[in-house]
Amino acid sequence: MTAIAAPRFLQSTVGKKVVMAVTGIILFGFTIVHMLGNLQIYLGPAKFNAYAHFLKSVPSLLWGTRAILFISVLLHVVTAVQLTALAGAARPRAYSFRRWRSASYASRTMMLSGPLLALFVVYHLLHFTTGQAHPHFIKQDAYWNFVTGFKVVWTAVAYVVCMLALGLHLIHGAYSASQSLGLRTARTAPVFKLVAYAITIVLVAANISMPIAVQAGVIKLHVPTEVPPVVVGVR
Ligand code: HEM
């Protein structure tokens, strides 16, 4: 594809679906790596805080990753809005009900799970990264923030609900990405479906286990590295 043809390709519906697929795969990959890193919470405060410290120890890697994630989220959201607008404009009113019914449950919920996940990411950053949405945040103690964060029942429940929405979103997203990238044939379709389901189920189960383990007392508080200014109602 020439440099002149590329922008025209990205303006087409096929091009936009490829953008959705590529950015979706990047974000899917991030959630897997992030989940594997977070599972170190089960190894205790020293290991988890060392891991959190390591993530921030190479600024070029940290900011490079953040930039890729930010651009991917932006392109994914903007392109999703554009594709929805295009589909709405192309769809004759009389057919809308039938098309809705023929879509799978996961694909019908894409437009609900997508915005919910966008809200989740904003809340999640304010909760665990910057601390504005965390009543007991201590800057240098990721383990403390993790456990005191999930000690709050409604927060734990909200994370579980959002991870279920993430599961629905990823199952449909991964499956349709294989189609958008032209990888799906009659023979490979069942394999893609199986792989998408298997990875998503493991990811969601692992993510959900963490707030539940804090609530169940399996992951316990430790003595924080610095005394928090106000610690109310945390046991
Ligand atoms: C139960 C599931 C999850 C847990 C327990 C969790 C935990 C955490 C923690 C503890 C941090 C802060 C790390 C630190 O600053 O030391 C963090 C950061 C972050 N999380 Fe999650 N996370 C979860 C799910 C997700 C999901 C599903 C996404 C994306 C869709 C996500 C995206 C991010 C991002 C973008 C950051 C900021 C990374 C940075 O500092 O640049 N997280 N998460």
Descriptive overview:
The structure is a single chain. By secondary structure, the chain is mainly alpha-helical. It has a single domain, classed as Up-down Bundle (3 helical TM bundles of succinate and fumarate reductases). The protein is 74% helix and 0% strand. The chain has helices at residues 5-11, 13-38, 45-57, 59-90, 96-102, 105-108, 110-129, 142-151, 153-180, 189-215. Helix 1 (5-11) crosses helix 2 (13-38), helix 2 (13-38) crosses helix 9 and helix 9 (153-180) runs antiparallel to helix 10. It starts with a helix and ends in a 20-residue tail after the last helix. Bound molecules: protoporphyrin IX containing FE (HEM). Residues 31, 34, 38, 52, 66, 69, 121, 124-125, 128-129, 142, 146, 159, 163, 166, 207, 210 line the site of protoporphyrin IX containing FE. The site of protoporphyrin IX containing FE (HEM) has 18 residues, from helix 2, helix 4, helix 7, helix 8 and helix 9.
Write the layout of secondary structure elements.
Elements: H1 5-11, H2 13-38, H3 45-57, H4 59-90, H5 96-102, H6 105-108, H7 110-129, H8 142-151, H9 153-180, H10 189-215
Helix pairs in contact: 1-2, 2-4, 2-9, 7-9, 9-10
The protein binds protoporphyrin IX containing FE.
